[in-house]
Write a structure and sequence with these properties.
heterodimer, A: mainly alpha, B: 103 residues, 0% strand
Chain lengths: 242, 103
């Protein structure tokens, strides 16, 4: 009986001892898995943040390359404006390419977020650079149209002067309005390119929008004036063909 | 007999000569007309008007529609303006596109 009792006690002790060793080991394994999971999740978050930021930078780089082509192909841009815009675009491409590399080497999500803020605020590719290129093209095209219409005016005025009495009242009125519309267009667009190209990027998107808005209005006003001048010239041309 | 024959032949000869002369005159006029280029004027009045028009003036009273170099220049300039205004529309449309992705 004593022997049996001793055996039972020894077995129980062994079991307790085994449990004492096994339980901490199990707990340790579970803790380690949780830590690994957490670490993996954080890494995945960083990778996702980097991928998103890189994609946003790539979008801007593609836009800048398209703008570079637009500047090269814009036939009415003055050489000064073309040079200024080309420099701006090249500088932005260089800066954003460097920023792309910086994003790739970031070790925290917050650093990637800071890079994204830089990407937007310091460049303003969509809000400012694009409108700069297209509005400068618009203003320079308007100046070219004014120059062409002034030649038309001079030729039509010379022809009208040879008509008996200097032309009919309608013809004189059309010629006078042509000149008035030309002057209005010149007044609307004069000096606007310089103002446009002086706008700087920054954190305040509303300020940039407010600076661009009157320039867009001026370009549209000049376009309306030029259309009227063109219509006057065509009407007068038609009168003189009769 | 001879006198009688002469009296009978004389009117016939006169008619034949008149017909021949008319034929020659008609032929000459046709040849002159055919030798001129198409569209050219055929009267002194028309020639004067064309000269005025060709000089680019077209300012004389009653001058026809002007088609001289100066007028062609105006038409060409107006075509250029149409092209410039079309390019302007495109540039302005692109300039006013809404910015995306945070600007």
């Amino acid at each position: 009986m004593k022997t049996l009792t001793r055996f039972g006690v020894a077995t129980a002790a062994t079991a307790v001892l085994a449990a004492g060793v096994a339980l901490p080991a199990q707990a340790q394994t579970a803790f380690g898995a949780a830590a690994t999971t957490s670490k993996t999740t954080a890494a995945a978050g960083l990778d996702a943040a980097k991928a998103l930021a890189t994609s946003r930078i790539d979008g801007r780089l593609e836009t800048l390359h398209a703008l570079q082509l637009a500047v090269a192909n814009a036939s009415h841009l003055t050489s000064n404006d073309r040079s200024t815009l080309s420099s701006l675009i090249s500088s932005d491409i260089s800066g954003l390419t460097s920023l792309r590399g910086k994003v790739g080497s970031e070790t925290t999500v917050s650093a990637v977020r800071a890079d994204e803020t830089t990407m937007v605020d310091q460049y303003r590719v969509y809000l400012l650079v694009g409108p700069k290129v297209h509005l400068a093209d618009a203003f320079d095209t308007e100046a070219a149209a004014e120059s062409t219409l002034q030649k038309v005016y001079d030729k039509l005025a010379a022809r009208l002067a040879k008509q008996p009495g200097g032309g009919t009242a309608t013809e004189k009125s059309q010629l006078a309005d042509l000149q008035t519309q030309l002057q209005n267009a010149q007044q609307a667009e004069s000096g606007k390119v310089a103002t446009l190209l002086a706008i700087e990027p920054g954190a305040d998107a509303n300020a940039i929008h407010d600076a661009l808005s009157p320039l867009v209005t001026a370009a549209k006003t000049a376009r309306a004036d030029l259309r009227k001048a063109r219509d006057d010239a065509k009407a007068l041309r038609g009168e003189l063909k009769k | 007999m001879r006198r009688a024959t002469g009296n009978a032949v004389a009117p016939v000869m006169a008619v034949l000569c008149a017909v021949a002369l008319a034929g020659v005159l008609t032929g000459c006029r046709a040849q002159a007309s055919a030798s001129q280029p198409a569209g050219s004027v055929t009267s002194p009045a028309d020639a004067t008007a064309a000269a005025v028009s060709g000089a680019g003036g077209g300012a004389g009273a009653g001058a026809p529609a002007a088609t001289g170099p100066a007028d062609a220049g105006v038409d060409s300039d107006l075509n250029s303006v149409d092209g410039q205004l079309s390019g302007l529309d495109s540039a302005l449309a692109q300039a006013t596109q809404s910015p995306s992705d945070g600007g």
